[in-house]
Amino acid sequence: MRCNCSRRRLGAAAFPLGGFLMLSLVAGGGPALSDSGQTAEPALTRLVAAYPDHLARFEGTTLIWRDGTRMEADDGAGVKPFEVWLERPDIKDMLHQPYPAGAEATPPPAKFDPGRARNAAFFDKMYGDCRKGGVANQLKPVAWLPKKTKQRLLVTGVNGIDRKLAAVSAELDELPATFDPYLVPAAGTYVCRVIAGTNRISAHGYGIAIDIAVSRSDYWRWSSPAADGSFPYRNRIPIEIVRVFEKHGFIWGGRWSHFDTMHFEYRPELLPAGSGH
Ligand SMILES: [Zn+2]
After folding, report:
1. Cα of 60 to ligand 1 centre, how many Å?
2. pLDDT band for position 277 (cuts 50, 70, 90)
3. Domain-wise residue ranges, the chain
4. Distance, CA 253 to ligand 1 centroid (Å)?
5. pLDDT at residue 132 in the model
6. Residue 78 C-alpha to ligand 1 middle, in angstroms?
7. What's the pLDDT tens digit per position in 51-71?
8. Model pTM?
9. DSSP letter string, the chain
10. Could you tell me the distance, in angstroms and rounded to a whole number, from the CA of residue 34 to the centre of ligand 1?
């Protein structure tokens, strides 16, 4: 019975936030004009702004990379059923669900997984294909909470993610010791693997993700579905930790109906302008 009430709660708190962010982005910088004279959609404008090292502009719905590569962001399939959206998203689909940055950790509506759909061609181009050795050679070490531990983590240097994670680490290092069990040690970062139950490369395979304390985390695959097929939401990760990650461009898997509360990944296109870049 959680779905209706949680949907109302999120609808009141989170979706206006996403709308506000889009409006504020347009008001602040003005909408980008494509070469064809059409106004680019705000979400596409935000995507380009989030990855300035790699993305140049949109021409209509064609994404132009700084090296001249052109990628069609819209496969023409329209609004997809949830499972198809997750399995075969185009670039526009990645931006379809608004990520509720800064919100409390409330149960997400059913089939609400903002950031969980990743277009493989886009991520392979940006970060490399780990199965071909294209990611490991770009990994950089990050000292994790150096005041509390000596752990070193490896994440990609692409988009300065090593520096972004170091900034997260420095802020988390200042939290009181009561947070330590959630942070020390971190569970892991880079590993070239597919997502459990799929053939899709995990965000960990791109070197853009970090998992924190497994023993204090909740994951939908570890839980039993309710009678309606949904997975009862559970979270033990303090929201203070989540907000530090979000400030520096990382989204949290605890905001997904298919929750993965140990998981954070660098996705600045889903966060307020200025987060992490
Ligand atoms: Zn993870």
Report:
1. 34
2. low
3. 12-270
4. 8
5. 94
6. 29
7. 999 999 999 999 999 999 999
8. 0.85
9. -HHHHHHHHHHHHTHHHHHHHHHHHHHHH-PPBPTTSPBPPHHHHHHHHH-TTTEEEEETTEEEETTS-EEES--S--SPPHHHHHHS--TGGGGSSPP-TT---PPPPTT--TT----HHHHHHHH--GGGTTTGGGEEEEE-STTT---EEEEE-GGGHHHHHHHHHHHHTTS-GGGHHHHSS--B-----BPTTSSSBPGGGGT-EEE--GGG--BGGGS---TTS-------S-HHHHHHHHHTTEEEGGGSSS-BTTEEEE-GGGS-TTTT-
10. 36
